[in-house]
């Protein structure tokens, strides 16, 4: 056994191997120690070879496994992964000379572990930024020359710091080593993000789509720094915006295209140093760490979809939470590795079961006292099976009954945050319209998908009744309830609905000249419709006519005749669904409680009569579509108000005037942005034949295209 060595390098892989090559070539007495027997054997048999674009170094070395460390060590250069720090340092407790010390060459904040094992005063800290990788046993690649700094943990420059700085390649002493470590931790958060993808470091850092994410990760770490962060190699904490361009150039010139974290995840399939990063970060860093761990467990692979998901989390925090649209961010969501929705992030209205998540229903008591769902609702399971990332739950009006609980903030409108996002699927609409995610699930009993879509300026589709399963979804009125989709555009709505409803391929979108549109002129002329809303819908109709569409007027009376049965059906069923909870007078907010209790006065006989009357009226309503492909009218009579009007108010009655009919008929109905009134979005509504959702989506694709061409 070796008994006395001047310098031991524990961890002779990437950084340790490069340092060893330089030290041995300079004539230093160095012993290498590594836990990989194959690497140790190669070092002893063939020497250490450092390759790469910087220079080539081949030196003879002596290497041992940890069990063969010498009895007496004067100085240790510690270059193991951060999560191996304790196991690497513990054997030194009896071996380190009385005046000996450990120099940490690691990423991360490992000093506390070293101090805990060896006691205070036994550590010098180094900051190392050159890129390196183990490419074969005994062979290490050095990718570039970069900043190396050495300092005392508490600040200042001591004699031993000067000695180490003279020993290490490229090193300089610093009185602010902690500032360098925190800057490296911030840069490291960026690098960890690149590692979950299949992009090179330079390509990921240079992609404009990920710029807000990368800057947010760095800021999240720097905001927690107890020392003044220092600039290095293009990274400047005082100029993060400019740093990205410099870092792209720095990494593009390096011989190391990807991080060691990426190699651990994608090639070696072993744990990374993510726990160290997770320990210093905030919400976004925690999401990144959860993704890394999912890859470590084999639940995900390194691909760009992971970066897209992280970018969505960044938007969720930056944009979604100020709009009061977010209930919970869901880390590293489980999903299929392939599918038609791979790379699509989907928010779910917080009344739909997501495994492991409490179904909050827009109610503080339910949020605090509810139990996590034991399994996904079928609609959520279908999203996951299609490859979608179910990444957040979205805010809603209380129990989807049409009123905001006073203990929670109402979801705000991205077009004007002083206005409501609508209800009851307002959080879902706000997240989509704000660009946080491309799609979200909502529910619709009388317009709860389509009204928020109109207010916020996105697409919202209520499918044919019973097309999408409602199991695992809080019921309001089972005869009228639907689960549907809010999306950034018709194509995305079609993709998501196609996956959860198993629609199959859509028919080709018809040419405008082949499209037959039934205009509900009486709705457009209704005195409740505000002039700006009427003008926007009328302008959209004129554009369709100009594109060659066949527009004919259709009498809305058969649909309006159904409205009389809406209230007895809704109120009777809503009370029966929520009667048990209402036994606690403090459970619901006052508006919701009042609305639900209206159903106590509706008798079973009145409910049965309403259902029978609906059945009698349906054939006449269905006949409205006999000679047209779609019916078209305004989605809502007005643009988004300041708050959602309760259903039993005058404004509440008007709000659902044009949407409730499709719930009674079970027709698929889709809302499409068609303009603006004083800067607030206006939507038009399209309705199609029951069971012909795909045809409705195809027609909507054509109409969306015509409207976009006109405004391009």
Mean pLDDT rating: 96
Question: What's the arrangement of strands in the largest beta sheet?
Answer: 13-15-14-18-20-19-24-25-23-21-22
Radius of gyration: 32 Å
CATH class of the largest domain: Alpha Beta
- Strand content is 15-25%
- Helix percentage: 25-40%
Structural class: alpha/beta
Which CATH-level-2 architecture of the largest domain? Alpha-Beta Complex
Count all strands and give the number.
25
Principal-axis shape equals elongated
Number of helical elements: 27
Low confidence ranges: none
Spatial separation of the terminal alpha carbons: 78 Å
CATH-assigned fold name of the largest domain: Amidase signature (AS) enzymes
**Assigned CATH superfamily of the largest domain:** Amidase signature (AS) domain
Largest sheet: 11 strands, mixed
How many structural units, i.e. domains? Answer: 4
Organism: Microlunatus flavus
InterPro entries: 6PGD_dom2 (IPR013328), Amidase (IPR000120), Amidase_CS (IPR020556), Amidase_dom (IPR023631), AS_sf (IPR036928), KPR_N (IPR013332), NAD(P)-bd_dom_sf (IPR036291)
Domain Ketopantoate reductase N-terminal: 8-152
Protein name: 2-dehydropantoate 2-reductase
What does this molecule look like?
The mean pLDDT is 96. Helix content is 40%, strand content 18%. It is an alpha/beta fold and 712 residues long. It folds into four domains: 1-175, Rossmann fold (3-Layer(aba) Sandwich); 177-320, Orthogonal Bundle (N-(1-d-carboxylethyl)-l-norvaline Dehydrogenase, domain 2), CATH 1.10.1040; 321-501, Amidase signature (AS) domain (Amidase signature (AS) enzymes), CATH 3.90.1300.10; 512-711, Amidase signature (AS) domain (Amidase signature (AS) enzymes, Alpha-Beta Complex). Strands 13-15-14-18-20-19-24-25-23-21-22 form an eleven-stranded mixed sheet, sandwiched between helices. An eight-stranded mixed sheet has the order 5-2-1-6-7-8-11-12, with helices on both faces. It has 27 helices and 25 strands. The protein starts with a strand and ends with a helix.
């Amino acid at each position: 056994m070796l008994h006395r060595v001047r310098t031991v390098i524990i961890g002779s892989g990437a950084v340790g191997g490069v340092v060893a090559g330089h030290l041995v070539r300079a004539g230093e007495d160095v012993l290498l120690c590594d836990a990989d027997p194959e690497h140790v054997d190669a070092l002893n048999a063939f020497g250490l070879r450092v390759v790469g674009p910087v220079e080539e170094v081949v030196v003879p070395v002596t290497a041992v496994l940890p069990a063969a460390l010498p009895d007496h060590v004067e100085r240790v250069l510690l270059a193991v992964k951060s999560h191996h720090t304790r196991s690497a340092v513990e054997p030194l407790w009896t071996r380190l000379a009385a005046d000996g010390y450990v120099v940490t060459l690691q990423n991360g904040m490992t000093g506390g572990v070293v101090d805990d094992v060896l006691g205070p005063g036994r550590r010098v800290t180094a900051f190392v930024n050159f890129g390196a990788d183990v490419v074969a046993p005994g062979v290490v690649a050095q990718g570039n020359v970069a900043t190396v700094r050495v300092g005392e943990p508490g600040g200042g420059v001591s004699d031993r710091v000067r000695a180490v700085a003279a020993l290490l390649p490229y090193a300089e002493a610093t009185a602010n080593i902690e500032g360098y470590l925190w800057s490296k931790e911030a840069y490291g958060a960026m690098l960890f993000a690149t590692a979950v993808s299949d992009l090179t470091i330079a390509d990921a850092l240079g992609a404009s789509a990920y710029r807000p994410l990368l800057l947010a990760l760095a800021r999240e770490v720097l905001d927690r720094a107890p020392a003044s962060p220092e600039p290095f190699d293009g990274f400047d904490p005082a100029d993060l915006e400019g740093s990205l361009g410099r870092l792209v150039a720095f990494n593009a010139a390096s011989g190391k295209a990807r991080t060691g974290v990426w190699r651990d995840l994608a090639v070696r399939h072993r744990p990374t140093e993510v726990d160290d990063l997770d320990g210093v970060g905030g919400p976004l860093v925690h999401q990144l760490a959860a993704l890394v761990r999912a890859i470590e467990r084999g639940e995900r692979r390194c691909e760009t979809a992971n970066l897209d998901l992280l970018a969505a989390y960044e938007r969720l925090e930056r944009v979604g939470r100020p709009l009061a649209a977010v209930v919970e961010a869901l880390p590293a969501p489980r999903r299929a590795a392939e599918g038609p929705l791979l790379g699509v992030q989907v928010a779910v209205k917080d009344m739909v079961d997501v495994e492991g998540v409490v179904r909050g229903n827009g109610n503080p008591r339910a949020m605090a006292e509810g139990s996590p769902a034991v399994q996904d609702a079928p609609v959520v399971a279908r999203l996951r099976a299609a490859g979608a990332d179910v990444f957040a739950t979205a805010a809603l009006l209380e129990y989807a009954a049409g009123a905001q609980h006073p203990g929670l903030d109402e979801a705000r409108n991205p077009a004007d945050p002083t206005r409501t996002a609508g209800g009851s699927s307002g959080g879902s609409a706000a997240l989509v319209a704000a660009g946080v995610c491309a799609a979200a699930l909502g529910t619709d009993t009388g317009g709860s998908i389509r009204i928020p879509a109109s207010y916020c300026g996105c697409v919202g589709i209520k499918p044919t009744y019973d097309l999408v399963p409602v199991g695992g979804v809080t019921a309001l009125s089972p005869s009228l309830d639907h689960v549907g989709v809010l999306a950034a555009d018709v194509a995305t709505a079609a993709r998501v609905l196609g996956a959860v409803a198993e629609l199959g391929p859509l028919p080709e979108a018809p040419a405008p000249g082949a499209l037959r549109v039934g205009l509900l002129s009486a709705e457009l002329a209704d005195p409740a419709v505000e002039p700006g809303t009427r003008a926007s819908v009328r302008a959209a109709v004129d554009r369709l006519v100009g594109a060659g569409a066949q527009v004919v007027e259709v009498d809305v009376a058969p649909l309006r005749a159904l409205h009389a049965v809406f209230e007895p059906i809704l109120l009777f069923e809503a009370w029966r669904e929520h009667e048990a909870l209402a036994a606690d007078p403090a459970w619901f907010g006052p508006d919701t409680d009042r609305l639900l209790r209206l159903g106590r006065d509706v008798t079973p006989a009145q409910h049965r009569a309403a259902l029978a009357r609906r059945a009698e009226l349906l054939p006449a309503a269905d006949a409205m579509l006999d000679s047209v492909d779609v019916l078209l009218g305004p989605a809502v009579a007005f643009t988004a108000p300041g708050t959602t009007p309760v259903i039993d108010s005058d404004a509440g009655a008007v709000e659902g005037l044009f949407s409730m009919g499709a719930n009674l008929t079970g027709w698929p109905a889709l809302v499409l942005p068609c303009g603006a009134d004083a800067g607030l979005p206006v939507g038009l509504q399209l309705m199609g034949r029951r069971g012909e959702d795909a045809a409705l989506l195809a027609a909507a694709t054509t109409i969306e295209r015509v409207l976009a061409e006109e405004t391009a």
